[in-house]
């Protein structure tokens, strides 16, 4: 029996149906990895294409393209986000920025020190932002972003001090 285009049609259709699920499986697996490390599942947007976690805890999340998501404020995700993952922590983050008062500040660390407190700490370099863990239960939709990283706006202002009622200074 030889393969003809007509006889391969069911295989092609099956592949086309399963392709969208590949990204969903990665997204779901990332949720499981984050939860097993004491972090909320919604730290990364729904547009995650793939991720790698090596033996040292180095996490690399691939989004395909840069995008903007809405949590409490807007968050910029580069096409690849890297961090050191340990229990309750994403440290030395690279590829994620948060908008604060019209400025884009790089997110340095994300920490859940005490899950029973219901708080997550976002280190934006100049201050720590304390937010409710419930804001990160569900992954946001990430809108495509073209152009350069918004973190460039921060580098132009140097050591600007930023604080509000929800921020505590770095000690």
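^ structure tokens above, recovered residues below v
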């Amino acid at each position: 029996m030889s393969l003809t285009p007509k006889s391969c049609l069911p295989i092609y259709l099956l592949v086309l149906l399963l392709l969208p699920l590949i990204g969903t499986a990665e997204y779901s697996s990332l949720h499981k990895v984050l939860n097993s490390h004491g972090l909320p599942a919604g730290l990364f947007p729904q547009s995650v294409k793939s991720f790698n976690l090596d033996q040292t805890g180095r996490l690399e999340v691939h989004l395909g393209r840069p995008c903007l998501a809405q949590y409490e404020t807007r968050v910029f995700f580069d096409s690849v986000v890297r961090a050191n993952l340990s229990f309750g922590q994403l440290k030395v983050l690279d590829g994620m920025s948060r908008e604060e008062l019209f400025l884009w500040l790089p997110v340095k660390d994300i920490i859940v020190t005490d899950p029973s407190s219901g708080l997550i700490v976002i280190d934006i370099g100049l201050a720590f932002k304390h937010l409710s863990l419930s804001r990160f239960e569900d992954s946001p939709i990430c809108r495509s972003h073209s152009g350069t990283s918004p973190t460039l706006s921060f580098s132009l202002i140097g050591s600007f001090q930023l604080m509000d009622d929800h921020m505590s200074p770095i000690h």
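The chain has a mean pLDDT of 79.
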